Amino acid sequence: MTLENQLIGKVFYETLLPPDQTAHPVRLLGDLYQEEQKKDMPDVSHIRFAQGELYFHNKDFEAAIFKWENINNQLEPWAKKNMGDAFFELGLLTTAEDIYKSVHTESLVLKTEIALQLLSVYIEQGKRDEAVNVIKGAVALNPEYPNVTGLARAFFEENGDWGNAVELAVNEAIRTESLEWFDVLKTYVDNGRAQSLPPVYFNEALAVLHRVDRARFEAFAASLWNSYKQEGMALSWQMTFDQLFLGMEASRTDAWHELSALYKDAYLQLINGQYYINELKGVMPNLLTNWLKITDSSHAMFASAAVLAWHEIFPLSIDETSIQDAETLVYQSRSITNGVEETLQLFEEIVKWAGNNDLDVGNRIRWIVKELSDLQTSHLLVAGLPGAGKSSFINSVLGEKVLGPAATSTVVMFKDGEIASINEIEDNKVREIEGLAEFHERTDVRKQTHSRAAVIDFTLQSPFLREHGLAIIDTPGINGTNVEKVMTCTQFADSLLFVMNVSAPFTEQEQDILLQIRDQAPNLPVHFLLNKMDTIYDQQEAVGIVENTWARVKEYFPRAKVFAFSSTYESKAQLRELAEFIKENFSTRNIAEDRTGKLLFFVRRLIKQLLEKRFEKENGLVESIQWNEDMKVKLNGAIHQLNDLQEEKTRTIKKSYQQTKNEIKAELLEKIPELLRGCTDVISEDSNFRKIHLELNEEMNNRIQNYLDTTVLPKYYSALQDWIAFAKEEFNESQNYLNELSDGFNTLYGEDRMSLECDFKVLDDWRRDSDRMTRGVQLEKVNILLRFTPQQFLLKSAGTLLGALSQNRTMLQTRYQTFLENEDYHDTAASIADRFLLQFDLFEKSLDRDVAIFFRNPLDVLNHAVAEAQTSIETSRAALENMRAKPEIYQDPLTLFELRLRQYEWISVAGR
């Protein structure tokens, strides 16, 4: 045992004991102490140190402390450390801590022991931070010290300090290259203890493990991969790991099954639309290079196709060596994936994305993809020139006369089904066709009622189609204007049966068309049907025509076969021969492989259409903004015109009303004085001149009231009706103008959106008001002769004084009559007119409001249209700015769809 181990275990005293002694060590050390004291220069420090150890072991801690306090030799640091141990055992933790900290030594072992003892003190004191610092210091100081790293690991794990636990495991794994520590680290990662650390933190550990044990390297890398994937740090991890792994030695000869699968998952995750292209450009090249470097056989084709697809979309981003390696793998691999299923999934994802971005995917391409996904039915395209007998041939196959004698104008697919149905499929709608009559109407080339882009899905019960798993695609007779329709169908068909008239088979025109078809679809099997054989009566001649035609056909289509047919021979034998012909020549291909290629064609077409729609949408937004700006100008102009019209009509109608009212008022001012002067006939010599003024005043009021009721009001009523009729004409004129205005706007809108209807109920209100105002006016009695004027006062006084004398009556009569005839009644007439016209004045004040009510709806409609135009402008401008500010939001998903499409295209040619 070394001295340090003796000091650690407090058994240094054993080195001082004589051998073979049976006495108690305390007694023996006491004897040694006495012997040392007898010397001239005694040195008892080592004996006192040993005595302290014995006292400590016997739990006499105070005696031990006493012994260790006076150690002055090289054992002094150990003595202080032991004093700390004694105070710790006594429970005096603070004192123990102070003593431990006061020890100064160069001994690495002693420093480590003090650190471990301080750890115990801090644990007892509950000082977690201090405990962490001291154990980390011990590990950093002397990691080789027995069990110090194990103690640190246990402490961190017990306290849930996973950050320090992971740090310890990483450092020790790197330092020791111990697989045990790498296993501990992997356990931490698997349990989610390392998710807060950046991926670069593990680079050195990964590099060491790759050199030490590649199997464990793969397992540890996979653990980190899955951990960061769950925490949303997949991109950061991928960049970090791939940069590291790129410089590591690895090859496909090693079994990298787990990493290869993770690379595939990561690749698919990165291109699923969560990330922009600019983000992927910094990740994908290294990812694909590494994946290709270690891919296993189950992922080799997928990885190599991914590399080649990325290289085509983003040239020069992957080194040429990897590109060549990927090409070799593709051509050496054999496709074992379900290309149809994967392509359909890609198509559905594109459709879903388009829907989320307010883009329509036409019904026609949806229908085509749906039909192509049915691998149990082969699509036979039947084409030919007009007059070749194509329709009669199809009728013979279907077993009923479905196609009429007229030339068809659209593509029709006939397929077997339990429930008969006919549907015309256009991009924006699907229309059900009711019966053959309407079908003939819709397909008659002379009627041209169908959409040029439509296709008709015709389902009927057909034993021949069902038995042979066929669907027949009928095309219009080929002429100079509809070749494109046939060309489009070649990508939808599995094979082509070209119908020729036996009277002129394989003409130059037919050759030109067929060569165009071959250029468009070089892999499409082409065979020929020689129709109308019944027109050749000589059998030998018929055989000669067939052989000659076949010989000419084989010059251009060496694999093509020719079948002689007559629609007039409705024999089962002929159909059996046709069935055998179809079976031999149209059923030998790998339909799943072919359909994958066709589906990929239509997926590419869809991506192209959506990309074009993006530019159409941008241009549409620009046009929408400009159109709505123009509409705003026009609408605001219309509003100004309408306001001017309202002001004009208000002035005109009010002026007319005022003219009527003023005429009535003038008449009142003229007629009332006449009525009052005419009251002289009430005065006679027999009148009671004492009360004559009262009688005259009453009579005057009665005559005025009677005049108003019988003359003025009827006349005023009639005048108001004329005025209302005039106002109606003015309103009608305004409405006609507004109708023309709304028609103009509706023409611009392209729909009957705007209706500028005025409120003619205003006229009804005026009629009711005119009737009410002219129904009767009861004025308060006016004091015409009861006012206190000098002349009236003299007359009243004279009547009172002289009225009783008969000789004075004639004089009083004359005086009163003269007074009435010469009196100025203008003020009285004006007062009566004002009272009479009061309600008519109030009515006049409401005319501005009433005319405004009449025009209120058109103004509201126009203002609402302006608001709608402004909203549309703002919405379109925001959308346009967003599209231009972040074009990657739209373009990047389409680029990634194209990337996946190109990858599937590479897979589809694997091994060829």
Describe the overall structure.
- With 912 residues, the protein is mainly alpha-helical.
- Among the domains are: 376-589, P-loop containing nucleotide triphosphate hydrolases (Rossmann fold, 3-Layer(aba) Sandwich), CATH 3.40.50.300; 659-855, no CATH class.
- The chain is built from 37 helices and nine strands.
- Strands 4-3-5-2-6-1-7-8-9 form a nine-stranded mixed sheet, with helices on both faces.
- Residues 791-796 and 798-805 have low confidence and may be disordered.
In helices, the fraction of residues equals 55-70%
Beta-strand percentage? 5-15%
Question: What is the number of strand segments?
Answer: 9
Helix segment tally: 37
Known CATH architecture of the domain at 376-589: 3-Layer(aba) Sandwich
Radius of gyration: 56 Å
Unreliable spans = 791-796, 798-805
CA-based shape:
flat
What's the CATH class of the domain at 376-589, please? Alpha Beta
What's the pLDDT, averaged over the residues? 87
Structural class: mainly alpha
- Tell me about the biggest sheet? 9 strands, mixed
CATH superfamily of the domain at 376-589: P-loop containing nucleotide triphosphate hydrolases
Protein traits:
flat, 9-stranded mixed sheet, 912 residues, 37 helices, single chain, mainly alpha, Rossmann fold
Could you outline the blueprint of secondary structure elements for this entry?
Layout: H1 3-9, H2 25-37, H3 45-57, H4 61-68, H5 76-89, H6 93-102, H7 108-125, H8 128-141, H9 148-158, H10 162-176, H11 179-190, H12 203-212, H13 214-230, H14 234-246, H15 257-270, H16 277-281, H17 284-294, H18 300-313, H19 320-332, H20 339-356, H21 363-372, E1 378-384, H22 390-398, E2 411-416, E3 421-425, E4 430-432, H23 435-443, E5 455-460, H24 463-468, E6 470-474, H25 483-490, E7 495-501, H26 508-520, E8 526-531, H27 539-556, E9 562-564, H28 572-586, H29 591-677, H30 692-749, H31 761-774, H32 790-802, H33 809-822, H34 826-836, H35 838-845, H36 847-885, H37 888-908
